[in-house]
Amino acid sequence: MLAGLAISPQTPSSAITDEAFHAADMILVMTVHPGAGGQKFMPECLEKARELRKRFNGVEKHIQVDGGVGPGNICDCAKAGECAEAERFGYSGR
Predict the structure, then answer these.
(1) What is the pTM of this model?
(2) Half-sphere exposure of 4 (CA within 13 A, CB side)
(3) Mean pLDDT of the chain
(4) CA 67 to CA 60: how far, in whole Å?
(5) Phi and psi at residue 29, in whole multiples of 5°?
(6) Cα atoms found within 13 Å of the Cα of residue 92, Cβ hemisphere only
(7) DSSP 8-state symbol, 58
(8) Spatial distance between the Cα atoms of 49 and 53, rounded to a whole number of angstroms
């Protein structure tokens, strides 16, 4: 069984402790508020993925984004961190 950890737009990346980061199999950065469909992508949330990737540089961990990802922002998402959501749009990998 795998375990993931998600943070919503209002949660800072610093809320993810070293211990929690290393215990999780993947980290999900929400780029919309969870629970309501049809929301617009919040690009400011990508900074959290960048911060986590920088903070844990060298650690093999999936850092993913979810919410409002599409052809217009998929490259920015991929540059911020790994992007599993991107797989729906034909992108996979770092």
Answers:
(1) 0.82
(2) 12
(3) 84
(4) 23
(5) -100, 115
(6) 3
(7) T
(8) 6
